């Protein structure tokens, strides 16, 4: 595995492989890699001639300075993991390499970015669009892999791809969970012992929400019941729980409003000061 530090080397490598007719799978990450990332990398390895994984904590998508400062950074362990997964190239650049000057682009991300994480984290999705568009332009992937834990992010990236006209396929990959149901996240290492003990309740109550739908509750009733149950647990506080159309991300008031992909329940919960996100399909 080659570790690439510069944009010029990344462009050169990608150009050479594409010219030679090889497919490129790109897995964009912010490092602190875990089994969820490994599932993306393994899938990319199966489906492409060449696999590139980027490891970059992108400052422009953090709307909270403390979140950026405390985001876990484990470069050596990440590189070792990627090497053992048979990755061809790990792109691990500095902030100056990616942003030699400020990126002032503002993407017209439309309705998919106007709900849930959009208003909660102003500027976040624009920052994601900035970095992912750069990575796509430089690494020319055939396919790019993203975890479904960040469910809304995938819709936003699809929109960016449409705006920029990138010719590639976005591959959403299922959430990987701990045995007790907690969705894997790089932020889980920041949970206290007490937080770690209650955090699996989030997934448990999301599963219960599927049963509530089956019992005939409306989306609003399911949202209220789930938020009530989570907030009743010591150490958990729901920021939002919204049932949306799984394609458009727009809230639905009746189950029949959900289109071809059905409905998704997207949740953000504070577990102490750690912000966890998860989702479930109906
Ligand atoms: O999902 C993430 O880890 C990040 O948002 C991404 C897609 C790597 C962009 O920085």
Characteristic key phrases:
single chain; 282 residues; alpha/beta; 6-stranded parallel sheet; 3-stranded antiparallel sheet; 40% helix; globular; binds pantoate
Model description:
It is a single chain. With 282 residues, this protein is α/β, with parallel strands linked by helices. The protein contains 11 helices and 9 strands. Strand 2, helix 2 and strand 3 (50-55) form a beta-alpha-beta unit. Helix 10 runs antiparallel to helix 11. The model has no long low-confidence stretch (mean pLDDT 98). The structure holds pantoate. The site of pantoate has 10 residues, from strand 2 and helix 7.
> Approximately how much helix is present in the residues?
40-55%
**How many beta strands in the DSSP annotation?**
9
How large is the share of residues in beta strands? 15-25%
Strand arrangement in the largest pleated sheet: 1-4-3-2-5-6
Would you tell me the structural class of the helices and strands? alpha/beta
Rg over CA atoms: 19 Å
Q: Major sheet, described briefly?
A: 6 strands, parallel
Sketch the topology as an H/E string, one letter per element. Answer: EHEHEHHEHHHEHEHHHEEE
Ends apart, CA distance between termini: 41 Å
- Oligomeric state of shown chains: single chain
The average pLDDT score comes to 98
Q: Regions with pLDDT < 50 over 5+ consecutive residues?
A: none
> What small ligands are held by the chains?
pantoate
Described by the principal axes of the CA atoms, the overall outline is globular
